[in-house]
Design brief:
Layout: E1 2-4, E2 33-36, E3 49-51, E4 65-68
Length: about 100
């Protein structure tokens, strides 16, 4: 997975806005899904989100599915450093929400 949205760039922070209340859906969590990240508390989603590089059905009904990547998922399969993603940071250069 690729996770982002932390204003500190460390993966440990959230925005200045209040956390979101839990709102889960029954959509299956599969490759290409864009999911809202949260801590152990179901009501802790804030600014972080992630993209699934593979199926993650163990997360079904535990996270909110925001959407799905429709173009460019082949890039996730060619990441040169998937075992240690922090060694070579990757960036989302552009995104479009329809």
């Amino acid at each position: 997975m690729a996770q982002t949205g932390c204003p500190h760039g460390t993966g440990t922070g959230g925005s200045k806005y209040p956390n979101l209340k839990a709102e889960f859906n029954a959509e299956p969590h599969v490759r290409g899904n864009l999911l809202m990240a949260r801590a152990q508390d179901p009501n802790s989603a804030n600014s972080q989100f992630f993209i699934c590089f593979g199926d993650a059905r163990f997360l079904d009904k535990q996270l909110y599915r925001l959407g799905k990547v429709t173009l460019g998922m082949e890039k996730s399969s060619t990441r040169s450093n998937a075992a240690n993603p922090s060694a070579i940071p990757h960036k989302i250069v552009s995104a479009t929400i329809d």
